[in-house]
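Renewal narrative, Specific Aim 1. Our central claim is that a sequence can be written position by position from structural information alone. The example that follows is taken directly from our test logs and has not been curated for this report. It begins with the structure tokens describing the chain, in the order in which they were read.
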């Protein structure tokens, strides 16, 4: 047991107990962005979902975060369009798999490894509830962002963040929070960037 005198010495030396060190307050981060998605399982729906995901990956790469994009053959975004969105293709792990089970297995393995800072899962069928729970756990454990693109919301309780991405007639992207466990108030955000040509 540490005595009061030793605690005083530790205090003067700037040494703290682990319980005294609190993690950064996530609610103080910007509502939308790579940093606010780290450690969380997120869902993007809406006509601008692919463009929003591409913008996240490009931003994450600029912050030196390794990124992966997992999708099913026939549903992948047009690769040159990802490049035009600012994604460094030679630094992107891109998996195009033929079966839903393969996508689920690959996503689980990548998330479990903690080897990437951001993973996009773009598949026609939303992962099972069990996989979503594992992905959420891995995201929190490895402080990585796991982002799923889907056409509709099926299991809202499984996600820490759900946003709808909708392009505007002016060419901007409107981001609206449908659910956010971190932010105490509802929020909206408008991004001004070139959407991925030919992709939603």
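The sequence written for that structure reads:
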């Amino acid at each position: 047991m540490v005595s009061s005198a030793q605690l005083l010495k530790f205090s003067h030396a700037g040494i703290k107990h682990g319980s005294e060190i609190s993690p950064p307050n996530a609610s103080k981060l910007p509502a939308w962005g790579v940093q606010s998605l780290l450690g969380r399982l997120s869902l993007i729906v809406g006509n601008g979902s692919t463009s929003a995901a591409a913008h996240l990956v490009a931003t994450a790469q600029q912050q030196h975060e390794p990124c992966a994009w997992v999708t099913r053959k026939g549903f992948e975004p047009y690769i040159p369009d990802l490049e035009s969105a600012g994604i460094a293709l030679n630094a992107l792990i891109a998996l195009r798999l033929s079966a839903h089970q393969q996508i689920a297995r690959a996503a689980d393995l990548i998330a479990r490894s903690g080897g990437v800072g951001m993973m996009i899962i773009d598949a026609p069928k939303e992962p099972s509830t069990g996989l979503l729970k594992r992905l959420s756990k891995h995201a929190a454990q490895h402080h990585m962002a796991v982002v799923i693109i889907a056409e509709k919301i099926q299991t809202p309780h499984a996600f820490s963040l759900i946003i709808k991405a909708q392009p505007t007639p002016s060419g901007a992207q409107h981001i609206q929070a449908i659910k956010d466990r971190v932010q105490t108030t509802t929020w909206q955000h408008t991004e001004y960037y070139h959407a991925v040509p030919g992709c939603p």
